[in-house]
Each structure stands twice: as structure tokens, then as C-alpha cells.
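It is worth pausing here to work through a concrete case rather than discussing structure prediction in the abstract. The textbook approach is simple: state the sequence, then state the predicted structure, then interpret. We follow exactly that order.
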Amino acid sequence: MLSCRIEFREGRLPSDMNLKAFTTSLYHPRNALSKLTNLNRKSCQLGKHTRSHFPNRVNKRVSSPFALVHSDVWGPSHTTSTLDSKYFATFIDDFSHCTWLFLMKNRSELFSIFEQFYREIKTQFSVFIRTLRSDNAHEYFPHQFQNFMSSNGILHQTSCPHTPQQNGVAERKKRHLIETTRTLLLHGNVPSQFWGDVVLTTCYVINRMPSSVLDEKISSFDYFSTFPSSSPCLRVHMFCSQSLSCP
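Step two, the predicted structure:
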């Protein structure tokens, strides 16, 4: 019985022998419980269960550009960038997975940035953003932000509290940007205050890389006519000890 109590205290399932001895010592008659040979441990497993599995995608990919735009905000950074920024916001087109990244000094700038982004998409591509998907961060809910989306017919989809999996496209893109930016900073021995310049470069490069979501196609070149179909030379300006340039 002592060994069973120790196993319970350590969070382990006790053996059938120890568990039978423990239960028979608590209840009467002992003859009825002595016939116990095996216990159903489903209740024990469910008691330790944390959260059900989330699907890789909540919905299927949309069939037209800007029918759905994913958004998220990262920050604050412990180090202010050379551009006096501590945050960045991302907007990802679900159809092409092309990403727009904007540096911000504070979260309150998000509404003005979204207005700028909306006008750019409307002017350059002659389409309208139909749905914006984000988390429940307070910067997405000012009255002027909500009024702007309502007046332009934009649906705002938000994830449940403490459930970032429902905004998975934006969360994974943010992680990709941060990890790549950190790698470039470390590889080039770049001071951390240049993270703003590097994350913009990272976004530029990722938009011009083949994506597994698009069957190894390049989002910028294949879906938007404003981008060139091919690029003979891709210049990436990095703060490195050696200067690399295309011929």
C-alpha cells in the first residue's frame, strides 16, 4: 500500500497488484474487491489529458487572392532597432502565401498600417480584402479599426483566447521570420540593433523562395503580375564582414 501511495505521489500509474491492495484496504467487504484482476485506466489517462489534437489547417486554402488575409503582431523586442522599432506586423495572403511586413514603434500603429496595406492592395491589384483573420490582441479592436472594416465589408475572424493554433498560418510565418532573422544575425556577426533591417530582408527573400504549400512554386512571381517572372540576379544587402554582389 505504501508503494502505491508513492506511485500516486510521483504521478505514475500504480501496478495492478499495488492498486488492488490499496483499494481493498479502504473498502469492505474485502472478499468482493479481492476478485479484482484488472482496472480500467481510461479515467486516469483522461485525467492527465491536456488538449485534443488540432488539424494542420482549420479551413482549406481559398481560391482567389486576398479573399483571406492572416495577420499577427510580434513584439516588443528587447532591443530597439536602428529604425526605432520594437514591433512588426505581418499580413499573409492565404491564396499565394505572399507576406507583407511592417515595422512599428508601438502597437497603436497597426490601424494606420492596415489602412495603408488595404489601399495598396486595392490600387495595385484591383481587388478587395474580404476577410482578415487574427488573434484576440487588443490592437485589432479599436473602434476606428472595427468601423473601417465594417464600412469596407471586411469580415474579421478571430481565434479563441489562448488558442494560437487557430491562427496557425500567421503564427508559423512569424516563427519562420524570427528564426531566419536570428540565424542571419548570428551568421553575419551583426549587432542586434539591426534586427529591423534583417527581418525586412528575410521577408523579401522568403517571398521569392519556392513554397511547399504552393507545390514548390514561388508566390511573388507566379501569382502577381507586378513582380517579374524571372530575376537574373537577386541582390541581398547584408551587414557582413564580406561584401557579396552579383556580376
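Step three, interpretation. Confidence is low (pLDDT under 50) at residues 225-247. The radius of gyration is 27 Å.
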